[in-house]
């Protein structure tokens, strides 16, 4: 199914709403003001998404938080943290010095929490605005290369929603990015739900 410009705008808006909610929650956790923005959203085949991310990250070890969702739509949602972004975010949120041994000890818990907040914000936005019920599995934290993180997805026929999320922490003048990936096995159902919503506006 080809996606129209109007449908892409609607998808980006749904993700923006969710990321905005996530940013509000993150701001309650820290003293610094965190902004999250989505410069772009792409709809790709699983193979295209894999190729794009493989070019960018090569064999880097990345931190990732992933959870499965079922209901009106089903698939997997994941947040990928490039190494630099992961360290920066954890240092800011925990107050630990970047590169310290204490930072490593709290990294998994902190990134899992951020991943959970951002993914649930976006999934909640999709299910609320489109009035669709969804269930989620518990988030799983992984550290691996993009090859292995996407191994289960780039051989199947799922559509991938790939969103670049940029975070900025204003007082510290820090900018970084995280990658949102939604592997939607029921992409046509998602687009149909968006079409129904567009007709009602």
Structure summary:
Helix content is about 50%, strand content about 30%. By secondary structure, the protein is an alpha+beta fold.
Question: How are the secondary structure elements laid out?
Answer:
Layout: H1 5-29, E1 34-45, H2 46-57, E2 62-71, E3 75-81, H3 83-94, H4 101-129, E4 134-136, E5 140-144, H5 146-149, E6 159-169, E7 174-184, H6 187-200
Antiparallel strand pairs: 1-6, 2-3, 2-4, 2-5, 3-7, 6-7
Overview of the structural elements:
- The protein is an alpha+beta fold.
- The chain has a single domain (5-200), classed as Chemotaxis protein chec, CATH 3.40.1550.
- It has six helices and seven strands, in the order H-E-H-E-E-H-H-E-E-H-E-E-H.
- It has helices spanning 5-29, 46-57, 83-94, 101-129, 146-149, 187-200; strands at 34-45, 62-71, 75-81, 134-136, 140-144, 159-169, 174-184.
- Strands 1, 2, 3, 4, 5, 6 and 7 form a seven-stranded antiparallel sheet that branches.
- It is globular and about 50 Å long.
- The two termini are 22 Å apart.
């Amino acid at each position: 199914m080809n996606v129209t410009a109007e449908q892409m705008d609607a998808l980006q808006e749904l993700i923006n709403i969710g990321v905005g909610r996530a940013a509000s929650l993150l701001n309650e956790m820290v003293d610094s003001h965190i902004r999250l923005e989505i410069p772009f959203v792409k709809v790709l085949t699983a193979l295209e998404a894999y190729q794009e991310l493989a070019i960018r990250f090569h064999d880097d070890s990345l931190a990732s938080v992933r959870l499965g969702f079922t209901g009106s739509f089903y698939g997997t949602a994941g947040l990928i943290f490039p190494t630099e972004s992961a360290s920066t975010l954890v240092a800011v949120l925990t107050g630990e010095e970047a590169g310290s041994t204490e930072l490593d000890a709290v990294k998994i818990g902190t990134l899992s929490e951020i991943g959970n907040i951002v993914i649930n914000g976006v999934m909640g936005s999709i299910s609320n605005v489109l009035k669709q019920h969804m269930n989620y599995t518990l988030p799983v934290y992984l550290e691996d290369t993009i090859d292995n993180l996407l191994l289960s997805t780039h051989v199947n026929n799922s559509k991938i929603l790939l969103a670049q999320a940029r975070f900025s922490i204003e007082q510290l003048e820090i900018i970084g990015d995280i990658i949102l990936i939604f592997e939607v096995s029921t992409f046509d159902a998602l687009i149909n739900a968006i079409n129904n919503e567009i007709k009602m506006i």
